C-alpha cells in the first residue's frame, strides 16, 4: 500500500516552461496588433515603448508622443552650440590683435588664441609672445598701478639687458668678434668661396637659398672652450629656426622651448648689424653671406641697435 505522504510526481518539462525562458531573453512588441516576441527589441525614445523590427519607427507603431525625441535633441544641440555667423566683416567679427595682421579669428577656418600675458586674441601666426612683441604691450584690463609697475620693471630689465650687452661687447670683442673683413671686391669673393668650401649644413637646402655665415657662441654659453664654426642656412628660415640649428651645430644646450625665463634662453646677436635678432625675423632679410652671428644666453629680450 503506497504511503499518502509521498510527494507527487514532478511535472514533466513542456514547451510552456521553455517559452518562459525565451521570454526572459527578448520582449514582446507593444504594438497592439502585433505582440510578437523579438529577441532584439527596439526602444522608442519618444514614448519609451518596446517594439519589434517592423514597428520600431514612430510612424509604424503610431507613437502617441511622436516627435518628442527629435525636439529634445534639437533643443540640446541649439543650446550647446554658437550660431554660425555670416560673412566676416570689421563690424561683426574679430581680427588678430597684431597691428599689421588682417586675419579674422574665431571663425570656422581660423582659430583664435588668447595670450594670458597681454590678454589679447591673436591668430596662429602671431600666437607666440615673441611674434606679437608681448613684452612691450600693456595688458588689457590691468589697473593703473599695475600698469605703472609693469612698465617700470620692463624699463629696468631693458636697461639691465642693455648694460650687460654693452659690457659683453667690450670684454669679448677681441675674443669673439671676427677679424676685419677683406676690403676689396676680389678679396671678398675669395673669402666667400673659402667659406662656402668649409661650411656645413642641410644638403636639402637649394644652393640659391643658402646663406653662409660664421657662427660663434659666447664662452659663458657653454662650459667648454669657445666654439665656432662655418655653416649655411636657408634664407627663408626664421631666426628662431636658425638658432635651433646653430645650437645643434655647436652642441650648445638650447632650452628656448622649455618655458624657462630669459636667463636661460639663447639669443642671436648679429655682429655686422650690432643688434639682437628677433625670433620671428626672416634670415634672408637680416643677414648676408659672410656675416657673423653669436649665440648669447640670458641677455634678455631683443633690443634694437643696443651697441
Automatic annotation (TrEMBL):
Keywords from the UniProt entry: Metal-binding, Zinc, Zinc-finger
Instruction: Supply one GO CC term from the record.
Output: cytoplasm
Q: Does the keyword Zinc-finger apply?
A: yes
The answer to whether keyword DNA repair applies is: no
Q: Where is the AN1-type domain?
A: 23-71, 90-142
Coiled-coil region list: none
A GO molecular function held by the record: zinc ion binding
Entries under PROSITE patterns matching the protein: ZF_AN1
Q: What is the protein named?
A: AN1-type domain-containing protein
Q: Which organism is it from?
A: Heterodermia speciosa
Amino acid at each position: 500500500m503506497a504511503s499518502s505522504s509521498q510527494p507527487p510526481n514532478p511535472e514533466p518539462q513542456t514547451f510552456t516552461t521553455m517559452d518562459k525562458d525565451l521570454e526572459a531573453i527578448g520582449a514582446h512588441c507593444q504594438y497592439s496588433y502585433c505582440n510578437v516576441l523579438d529577441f532584439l527589441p527596439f526602444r522608442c525614445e519618444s514614448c519609451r515603448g518596446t517594439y519589434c523590427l517592423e514597428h520600431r519607427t514612430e510612424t509604424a507603431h503610431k507613437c502617441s508622443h511622436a516627435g518628442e525625441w527629435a525636439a529634445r535633441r534639437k533643443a540640446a544641440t541649439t543650446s550647446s552650440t554658437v550660431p554660425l555667423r555670416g560673412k566676416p566683416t570689421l563690424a561683426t567679427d574679430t581680427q588678430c590683435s597684431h597691428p599689421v595682421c588682417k586675419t579674422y579669428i574665431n571663425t570656422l577656418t581660423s582659430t583664435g588664441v588668447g595670450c594670458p600675458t597681454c590678454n589679447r586674441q591673436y591668430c596662429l601666426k602671431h600666437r607666440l609672445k615673441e611674434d606679437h612683441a608681448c613684452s612691450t604691450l600693456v595688458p588689457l584690463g590691468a589697473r593703473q598701478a599695475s600698469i605703472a609697475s609693469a612698465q617700470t620693471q620692463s624699463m629696468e630689465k631693458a636697461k639691465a639687458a642693455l648694460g650687460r650687452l654693452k659690457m659683453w661687447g667690450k670684454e669679448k670683442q677681441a675674443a669673439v668678434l671676427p677679424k676685419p673683413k677683406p676690403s676689396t671686391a676680389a678679396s671678398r669673393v675669395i673669402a666667400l668661396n673659402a667659406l662656402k668650401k668649409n661650411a656645413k649644413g642641410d644638403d636639402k637646402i637649394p644652393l640659391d637659398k643658402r646663406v653662409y655665415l660664421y657662427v660663434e657662441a659666447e664662452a659663458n654659453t657653454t662650459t667648454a672652450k669657445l666654439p665656432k664654426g662655418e655653416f649655411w642656412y636657408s634664407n627663408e628660415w626664421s631666426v628662431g629656426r636658425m638658432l635651433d640649428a646653430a645650437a645643434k651645430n655647436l652642441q650648445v644646450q638650447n632650452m628656448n622651448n622649455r618655458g624657462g625665463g630669459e636667463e636661460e634662453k639663447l639669443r642671436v646677436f648679429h655682429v655686422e648689424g650690432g643688434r639682437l635678432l628677433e625670433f620671428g625675423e626672416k634670415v634672408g632679410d637680416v643677414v648676408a653671406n659672410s656675416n657673423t652671428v653669436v649665440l648669447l644666453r640670458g641677455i634678455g629680450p631683443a633690443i634694437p641697435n643696443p651697441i
